[in-house]
Amino acid sequence: MYYIRSNDGTKISVEDINPTYSKVIVMVHGWPMSKEMFEYQKNMFTQWGYRIITFDIRGFGDSDISGSGYQYDQLATDLYMIIESTGINNIILLGFSMGGAVCVHYMGMYDNHKVSKLILAGAAAPSYCVSSDNPYGHSVDEVNKLIIGLYNDRPNTIQEFGNNVFASNPSPAFKTWFQGLCNKASGLGTINCAESLRDENVFSDLGRIKVPTAIMHGKLDKICPYGFATIMNQQIPGSLLYPFEKSGHGIFYDELSAFNHALMKFIEGV
Question: CB–CB of 82/14 below 8 Å?
Fold first, then answer.
């Protein structure tokens, strides 16, 4: 693990596995998690000979807690700074949940810079809240109640959120592990990113995506309803939709084998 400084001086924690390998995947975690959420994907990509770059969004995991900069513009810029610092090209970019929204915004803001394929898994896009163009989202009041809960009892609020992530029934030990990586996030990062989820959208970025795109989404998702995926599929040119019948929001674990297989099928055509 090492740190890169973003354009505003914030230190971002980066993990770079197999740095000499030529095939590269960059993975962007969701709210309120960290790069550790991709443990079961890292295992697979290592076996397939990939260089694996993950990082903690500012305010989460091991990255700096900044007093500002949690809007999608800055989060996409942080991603750009990481990609530029490594000198990598032709990357596979994977974003989960809020990380998916950040990746979509990166594609629009930086004109698909150095990305050869895009994977959106349970993405919180095109908007997390209900709008005239997204009837499937959450209400602003719902998110405001979540934010109040974060101010008053963040661990309990995160635990209640976590109860809706998985459609399967993970072991008690797994649930404890998952809660722990979510608890590691800072209060500032958790609250400010929840506000970005509430207030921002990436509708205008969808049509700017120019690379092959896979949209992987759980049919049982209670956090980012499956309707999100149908909108993205309609608005991202040439995108492929991969529905997961038994998965909730935790698509990366609910149907672990099927999800990992779909990743490799899309990436390598196997």
Answer: yes
Which listed residue (127, 221, 239, 247) is catalytic? Answer: 221
Whole-prediction pTM = 0.97
- Please confirm, yes or no, whether 97 is among the known catalytic residues: yes
Look up 221 and say whether it is catalytic: yes
pLDDT in tens, 121-130: 999 999 999 9
CB 49 within 8 A of CB 22: no
Whole-angstrom CA distances from 243 to 52, 57, 104, 223, 230 are: 25, 27, 19, 15, 10
Looking at residue 134, what is its pLDDT?
Answer: 97
Q: Token digits for 73?
A: 């513009």
Beta bridge partners, 118, equal 93, 213
Measured distance CA(188)–CA(191) in Å, rounded: 5
Sign, CA dihedral 259-212-228-187, equals: positive
Annotated catalytic residue: which of 29, 105, 217, 249?
Answer: 249
Active-site option among 66, 97, 186, 196: 97
